[in-house]
Amino acid sequence: MIKNGIVFSDKMNKTRVIIIRKIKKNKKYKKNIWIYKKYFAHDENNLYKKGDNVSIIRIRPLSKKKKWLIIKKK
């Protein structure tokens, strides 16, 4: 599965934190709510910087939290 998001943090070596936001509608109050989710993604050559729009894909686990790979910049 491919997901699109924004690089939220580039402080770790070969790892980027990607944030993905979705809209969810509250059933009772009929109000839109932004839902944010963080993903730890592998970046072998440290190419992507904070604020870049990227696409990530699920891979085998590389560490406890890192299970995604950045495939391209949008």
TrEMBL record:
A Pfam family reported for this protein in Swiss-Prot or TrEMBL: Ribosomal_S17
Q: Which domain of life is it from?
A: Bacteria
MF terms from GO for this chain are:
structural constituent of ribosome
One GO cellular component from the entry? Answer: cytosolic small ribosomal subunit
Give any single GO term for biological process: translation
Alphabetic keyword roster:
Ribonucleoprotein, Ribosomal protein
Q: Does the keyword Ribosomal protein apply?
A: yes
Q: Which family does it belong to?
A: Belongs to the universal ribosomal protein uS17 family.
Record's protein name: 30S ribosomal protein S17
